[in-house]
Amino acid sequence: MVYESPKTLEVCNVKKENNKVSRLQRAQWLRAAILGANDGLLSTTSLMIGVGAAQEGQWFMILSGLAGAVAGACSMAVGEFVSVSTQRDIEINVNQEHRSKENSSLQEIKIETPKNDQPIAPVRTPAMKAVTKMKEEEENEVLPNPYKAGAASALAFLCGSVFPLVAAMAVGDYTARIVVVVVVASVALALFGGIGAVVGGSCVRSSATRVLVGGWISMVVSYSLLKPLDGITDKKMGKSD
Asked: 157: how many CB neighbours lie within 10 A of its CB?
């Protein structure tokens, strides 16, 4: 049986904790990217379905999707930038308060030694040095970058918007175009929901079902609310008798 000293066990525990934190951070970024792509997919599809209900022209539908994709990506980028910037400021303030408290505590603790005697230096084993170094690296961990977060959110939103846009460009017939857009969006929603469930550790089937049903409800509401405007647009464009 191999005997491991308490210091060695402490080093191993710190390494495991750092690996766990690193995995959690990667999972959060991946999940945020999936949610951003899902948002872009659903928002753009619902907008295109709504515009398609009011106006049958293919380019009206495509241009509305492009406008929604660009506007949504900008909105996601600005929102994520503001959110991460606020988080960064809070973390900086908390770290500064923590360091100031530690410094004040160290200043209060004074070891009285005779004038002719030298203070005894604390004994630091290699294991203790490794633990101290890991803790310092953890405390000095790189703060979240709001520019990267904003760019990642915008890119994820645009990636999700590509699916309905490509489907609308590929089909010219009005009825077939609506059906193809809905089918492509449904498959992509189920896929994103399943990937998000795998990353988050939840049930894939229930997660994909929730995302899919929510997407269908959004599409139906958008189509139903704007379909009555079909007759008004026909009159404006001189298509009615």
From this structure: 30
